[in-house]
Design a protein that fits this description.
The chain has 397 residues and is of the alpha/beta class. The protein is built from twelve helices and eleven strands. The longest helix has 18 residues.
Length: 397
């Protein structure tokens, strides 16, 4: 079977330095254009126009704008082989995420595109423009059977650019039309736009939403997740979804020792008071390039806690910075991991929060009607079918 072609990535006019200024960029999770593990060249530092080599700069340079790289995907459903994850299939409309969460475990996937898991991950976003079309085609296959499906498992399906591109909206329309259940994970209030579709689906047992609330501390959230919704806005989202009849849970993930970990019970209490009915939590994971990015963030923003945080992370990861083994990566090991698990269990029992995911109905699926062949379409139209649309590159927002 031929390998899936990678989207065309337009070359940059100039390569940024490996390490940008130590100062954080406003509205971005990292200022580091981290070289990924497939890099083969050594790059020299030079003045890239952001003031990286300037001295005594009075004004902070503006953060880089988001660049959208359009892709026409061959497939949109990704199968899951991990026993740690409670769904069978996932859809990610975007590669990369503008939210800029420094801890995001999906950052290393940008290295497969020969882009930096650091700054490129949050500023060069690949958008799967034909996502809805491909999903309908997958559903139309005679061999397809409805399975547990998660939307936004890796990168947020409602990141800021979705307000303009509406790719996720198109996917929800296909899911609603064909009565296919879906769970959605997000930290964006942008999902409220699609309540006209989600509320009827919820009444039929076809959708659930899990809102990620990492911290109630606005200052911490602003640096840890710089372009995601504010903590209070996410709590308001939980209330809005619950009042609309959409089953809503809360994800207190990742739990980071000595940073947001002390807030665990308070986050659960706030979410439960506003309508959350279930909850889960995952300790911090630091795969591949996420590890140096996160440790660099610690030194920039909480240098007094950096050593303690990493010591506790290693205690939960069997002495390592990261442990990717099935059965342990989502929970951790040792006394500290057990303590957080017990705290989570007791708080959920006290607040009436279920620890299990919402059950969705797989029996209502309606397969799309087969599409007419290209020859039939051309004959009916009285002309040749149009050629495939070329992807536009380098759009800036």
């Amino acid at each position: 079977m031929p390998a899936k072609p990678k989207p065309h990535i337009p070359p940059k006019p100039a390569q940024p330095p490996i390490y940008l200024p130590a100062e954080a960029l406003k509205g971005r999770g990292t200022a580091w254009a981290l070289a990924h593990r497939f890099s083969v060249d050594e790059r020299e530092q030079f003045d890239d126009g952001w003031g990286s080599l300037a001295q005594n700069v009075d004004e902070q340079p503006l953060p880089p704008r988001t660049e959208i790289i359009e892709e026409r995907a061959r497939k949109i459903l990704t199968g899951n082989q991990s026993p740690d994850i409670p769904f069978d299939l996932s859809i990610n409309p975007y590669r990369g995420c503008e939210h800029g969460c420094v801890y995001c475990f999906a950052r290393p996937t940008h290295s497969y595109l020969n882009l930096s898991p650091g700054l490129d991950f949050e500023t060069r976003i690949v958008a799967k423009m034909n996502a809805a079309e491909r999903l309908r085609a997958e559903f139309a296959r005679p061999s397809y059977r409805p399975q547990l499906l998660c939307l936004g498992a890796a990168t947020d399906a409602y990141q800021p650019i979705e307000r303009k591109l509406r790719i996720t909206r198109g996917l929800i329309e296909v899911l609603s039309e064909h009565r296919h259940p879906v769970s959605i994970v997000t930290k964006s209030a942008g999902i409220e736009r699609d309540l006209d579709l989600l509320a009827p689906m919820a009444q039929a047992g076809l959708v659930s939403v899990y809102v990620s609330v990492t911290t109630l501390d606005g200052h911490l959230a602003r640096t840890l997740e710089p372009r995601a919704a504010a903590p209070q806005r996410r709590l308001q989202l939980i209330k809005t979804l619950a009042e609309a009849g959409v089953p809503v849970g809360v994800s207190v993930s990742p739990l980071i020792p000595f940073l947001n970990e002390p807030e665990l019970e308070r986050i659960l209490e706030a979410a439960a008071a506003l309508g959350a009915r279930t909850a889960f939590s995952i300790p911090l994971r630091l795969p591949w390039e996420v590890n140096p990015l996160f440790q660099d963030w610690l030194q920039q923003h909480v240098p007094d806690k950096a050593a303690r945080v990493m010591a506790r992370v290693r205690e939960m990861r069997d002495g390592r910075d990261n442990d990717s083994r099935f059965g342990q990566r989502m929970r951790g090991v040792g006394l500290w991991a057990d303590l957080m698990h017990q705290r989570m269990k007791k708080a959920c029992a006290r607040l009436g929060l279920n620890r299990e995911r919402f059950a969705l109905d797989l029996t209502q699926f309606q397969r799309p009607q087969p599409l007419p062949s290209i020859a039939t379409q051309a004959q009916g139209a009285g002309s040749c079918a149009p050629g495939s649309e070329a992807s536009r590159q380098g759009l800036l927002f």
